[in-house]
Amino acid sequence: TFIELLIGAMLTPAGFVTEAYWVVTMRNHWSSYYKWLQKGHWSWLGLSRQFVRLILKVVKQEVIHLVIDDTLTLRASKKAPGSQIHHQHGNKPNLAQYVRGQCWVSLAWVIRREKQPVALPLLTRLVPGISNTGKRVAAKTLIRAVYRLLDGRKVRVLVDGWYMRRIFIESMLARGFDVIGQVRIDTRLYDEPPKRKKGQ
Could you tell me if 153 and 177 are in contact, meaning their C-beta atoms sit under 8 angstroms apart? Predict the structure, then answer.
């Protein structure tokens, strides 16, 4: 099936469709899958949900680990969707401190394959702006797209410090998900106790 082809493409080192075709036992000739990829019309959201159902059927885990992270795709054109000037957090020596690019927030499911962790990508969303608020909104949107399929299961969401804010954490807890992430030292998740008056 087409879902099996996509899984094979994600698990092969290079991620090419031709490699996936040889890894997975397919029913049709390889050209039919290329035509489907080029001319077919489908819902990426529906495809992602079907992928989640397939993982639930094949992979047996007591705890489901979801990972949310963002990545920057460099762009030269200002006309590219979501093309903005971003701070280059990777501190790569061959790049400027500020670069033009697209920021993508991705949701993946981490499983173990032959004792090695493998991240299966579920959905990716383009962040239209450069604020961290936009990243958190995108992350919540990705979770909202698939969370009903995970109802009644123990789920942990792993994120980095940019997402560890009250609005995101409370949203995950409301769905019954645990959140694991490093909180920045300048971020407070609780209110300070009132100061005592002298003599009390």
Answer: no
Q: For residue 61, how many other CB atoms are within 10 A of its CB?
A: 15
| Helix boundaries (H) for 62-165 | 132-146
Q: What is the CATH number of the domain that holds 174?
A: 3.30.420
Are the beta carbons of 135 and 92 closer than 8 angstroms? no
Tell me, yes or no, whether 108 lies in a domain: yes
Q: CA-CA distance, 103 to 89, in Å (whole number)?
A: 12
Residues 6+ apart with CB under 8 A from 21: 5, 8, 30, 33
Give the C-alpha separation, 193 to 185, whole Å: 18
Q: Is residue 54 part of a domain?
A: no
Tens of pLDDT, residue by residue over 26-50, are: 677 767 767 776 777 767 788 889 8
- The structure's pTM equals 0.74
